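Most newcomers find our protein records easier to grasp once they have seen one. Read left to right, the backbone structure tokens trace the chain's path through space. Once this layout is familiar, the rest of the handout is easier to follow. The record below serves as our worked example for the rest of this section:


***
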Amino acid sequence: MVYLMTELPLKLKQLVDDFQLLTDKNERMDMLLFYAEDFVEVPEEIATRPFSKDHRVPACESEAYVWPQLNDDGTLSFYFAVENPQGVSAKAMAAILTETIAGSTPEEIAKLEPDVVYELFGRNMSMGKSAGLTSMVNVVKGYAIKSMQ
């Protein structure tokens, strides 16, 4: 494994560790589908349609959008929208990020690397899916870095 797992926020590290225990491709897909079903769209008090292009994830074929929220305690939370109803992978990634990095500090989130996508989804993704999912991670990381300035 190339990715330094100690650099991940704790909840995300634990999830990646769980995914590494899955040796069957179907089990991994089932777990990702579980997360996609857990996806909760951005609440209206954060954003409403039509969404601003400023929050759109570049290269994401599923038209994902991201909004950061700086919490009172200095941690960050993120909200997502996925406009493509068939965007199961984007919904899974959004749900995973929402669940595992919410409440992490900007410094912790800024250490994320897009390789975490491969740790979760495996390496057998299409180029388009890979680009979109890694872009989601990069956007989240970018918001964290920006909040530290």
